[in-house]
Amino acid sequence: MDLGTEQVQWYDEKNESPHGAVVLRVQNILDRQSTRRSSIRRCQQLYGVDLSAYGMSQDATIDRRYAINHLKNSIDTLAAKVSRVKTLPYAITAGGNYMQQKRAKRLSRFIEGAFEDTKFWTKQLSIDLATLVDGTGCIHCTSDYDQLRLEVVPMLDLFVDDAEGRYGEPRNMIRRHLVDRNVVMRLYGGNDVDGLFGSRADRRTAIRNAAVPTDSEMSDLVINSNADLIYVYEAWHLPSAPGAEDGRYIVCIDNATMLSVEWKRMSFPFAFQRRNVPLVGFWGSSAVFEFAPAQEEHNKLSHKLQQGHHIMGGSHIVMQAGTLGKTVSLDNGIGTVIEYQPGGTPPQVFNPDPVNPQTYAYRNSIPQEINQGLGLSNMSAHSELPAGLRSASGKALQVYEDFESERLHVFHKLHEQFALDVANLIIEECESLLASDVDVSVARPTKSELESVQWSEVRMDQREYRMRIYPISNLSRQPSAKFEQILSLAQFGLVEKPILRRLLDLPDVDAEEDLQNAPTDAVDMALYEMIENRKYTSPSEFIDPVMAMERAKLFYAKCMVDKVPDRKLALVEGYIKECAAMIAGIQAEQQAAAQPEGQPTGEQTGGMAQGAAPMAGEGAAPPEPATMGAVQ
Fold first, then answer.
1. DSSP letter string over 372-439?
2. How far apart are CA 405 and CA 497, in angstroms?
3. Letter string b/e over residues 547-580, b meaning 16 or more CB atoms within 10 A of that residue's CB
C-alpha cells in the first residue's frame, strides 16, 4: 500500500477521523513486516505451539514426526532457570531524612503488594517464554477503575514502524487486539464524558456495525467461532518534550474513533523484556530462531534413522542360488526348519547396521550443542551433577555454576530491569489515577494478615528515590553454596541483617525488621521532630542510652554539615546531654552495687552519686545547651 496516502497523522488535532489513519498505518506495517510476522509464527510452531488451533496455517516444512523436540526442552529449562527467583524491586533514598526513608520503605511494600495483586510473578513466566520464543516479551500496565491490571501482550498484537524503531526508541506504538463487542459497548457506548469522541449515538451505532476481522491472520479463527469479537486499536504518540501538549492517546475500531485524550507521560504503558540487547531496531532476537537449524537437523537425522531401521531392521539370510532346491518364504515362527541340498553352502545370517554408528553420535551431539549455545550446563539441562562434583563442597559448586552464569549474565540483568520497568509503570499508573481522584489500594501479605497500603500514603517525588532489585538472583541455586555466599556477606558486613533475612527467604521479614529497628526508629523520629518542628522529646528509659547518644551525635554532625540553625541544634545538644546523664546515673548505680558492705555511698553521705543527674521526663525542657565544642 502506498504510504503517500497517509497525509495527516493520526495524532494530528486537525484529523477529524483518526481511526482511519490508525487502521491505515497498521495495514502498512502488516505489509512491510510480513516476513517478521511469519518468522514469529514459525518459531512458535518449532517450539510446539499448534497454530491451527488459533486459525493460523501451519508451516509445512516443519516435520518432527520422528524426533524429540530438544529445542523446546532447552527453552523450557532456560526459562525455568531465569524465573526461579522472584525479582522484587525496592525503593532507596539518596541522603534522605528519616521521614523519606520511612516513606521509601512503605513504597517498597506497596510495590510488593501491587505485584501480588496483579499476579506479576505468574505472568512473568509467560513473559520469559515469549522472550525466548518470539524474541520479545511484553506487559501492558493498565487499570480497571481503581484496580491495577497487568496484561501479557503477544508480539503480533503490537505495531512499531521500522523506521521509528531503528534506534530502539519509537515515538508511536499501536496495539490491536480482539475484544468482545459487548465489552466495547460497555466501555465506550455510555454517556458522554471527557475524552470520548463524537456523540453517544454515533459511537453505539459504529460498535454495532463494526465488522469481524477479515485479515488473513485472524479471519478463520473469528469467522469459525461463535464469539462476537471485533478489533480494538489503542494508539500512543509520546510528547515531544516533558510538559509538551502534543502527546496523544486514542482508542478506535475499524469504522469509528471511541476515545481521544492527551498523553502526558514520556513513555508507553508497556514493559519489554529481551534476551539480549538488540544491535539495531526495536525487537529482540528469538532463541528458537537462532537454534532452529540445529533442531531441524536433528529432525532430519531422526527421519533417516527411522527409515534405516525400517528397511534394514529385519533379519537377512544370504545363501548360494539353488541351495534349497526350491523357493522358500521365511516366516517369524518358532523352530522353523530350513533345509538345504547336501554338499551345498548352508545359509548365513547377515544383519548389517541400519545406519553408520557415526550418524548416531552426530545426532546425539546436537542437543548438547543447543544447550551450550543457550548457556546451559548439563547440571541444568539434565538435573544432575557431573561425576566429579557429586561430593563437592558448596564453594566448588559455586565456581562450577559461575561458568554457566557468565553466559546468562545479560539475560539475568534484562530480566531484573524488566521488573524495575513494571514497578515504574505501576507508579505512573497510580499517579495518573490519583490525578483523577482515584486512590489505589493494594493488599500486601504478611505472616498472619493482609496489610493494606494506599498509594497516597507512600507516593514520593521521583527525585528523592531510586528503584533497585534485591540481589537474590546473584546467589547460587545450590543450598550449600548459597549459604556460604550469604555467610561471607554477613562476616564482612557487606549486607545488613534485614537483607540477609530476605536472601535466606525467611518468612515475614518486614515484621521482624520493623521490630529489630524500632529503638533506632524511635530515636530517629525524636531527632527529626526536633529539627523539623522544634518539638523536644527526652530520651526514653526503655531505650539504650548509649545507642541513643551515638545516634544523636551522628545526627548532630550531619546537621552541622547541612548548616542547620543553632536554635535547632540546641535541642539536639540537650538530647545528647540527657543521654549522657542517664549513662552516668546507670554507671553510678553499678558502682554502688559493686562496693563492699559498710562502705558509705553517696546517699549515706547526703550527696548524690558522682556523675548522677536528675532525669527529665517526656516533654520537659532540655538542659541548658553547651557550646558546640563540648559535644564529643
1. HHHT--HHHHHS---GGGTT--HHHHHHHHHHHHHHTHHHHHHHHHHHHHHHHHHHHHHHHHHHTT--
2. 26
3. ebbebbbebbeebeeeebeeeebbbbbbbbbbbb
What's the maximum distance between 2 C-alpha atoms anywhere in the chain?
Answer: 139
Q: pLDDT for 229-252, tens place per residue?
A: 899 999 999 999 998 989 999 999
Where does residue 519 rank: exposed (0-12), middle (13-18), buried (19+ CB within 10 A)?
A: middle
Q: Are 33 and 275 in contact (CB under 8 A)?
A: no
- SS3 string, 208-240, reads HHCCCCCCCCCHHHHHCCCCCEEEEEEEEECCC
Task: Report the candidate in 525, 528, 460, 447 with the shortest Cα–Cα distance to residue 105.
Answer: 460
Q: Judge whether 55 and 41 are in contact, CB under 8 Å.
A: no
- Give me the residue label for grid cell 485524550: 261
Full DSSP string of 9-77? -TT-TT-S-HHHHHHHHHHHHHHHTHHHHHHHHHHHHHHT--GGGGT----TT---TTS--HHHHHHHH
Q: Residue type at 270? A: F
Q: Tell me: the pLDDT tens digits for 412-426?
A: 889 999 999 999 999
DSSP H or E segment with residue 527 = helix 509-533
Q: Which of 154, 135, 270 is nearest to 218 (CA)?
A: 154
- Give 193's DSSP letter: -
With cell 524503531, the residue in question is: 165
Q: Position of cell 543447543?
A: 370
Q: Per the structure block, which three cell numbers stand in for 523?
A: 530515636
The DSSP secondary-structure symbol of 7 reads: -
Angle, helices 479-491/394-407, rounded to nearest 10 degrees: 100
Cβ(481)–Cβ(398) below 8 Å: yes
Percentage of residues of the chain with pLDDT beyond 90: 35
Whole-number Å distance between alpha carbons of 324 and 343? 11
* Whether pLDDT at 602 is above 90: no
In the three-class reduction of DSSP (H, G, I as helix; E, B as strand; rest coil), residue 300 is classed as helix
403 — pLDDT class (breaks 50, 70, 90): very low
Query: Using one digit for the tens of pLDDT, what is the confidence trace for 250-266?
Result: 999 999 999 999 999 99
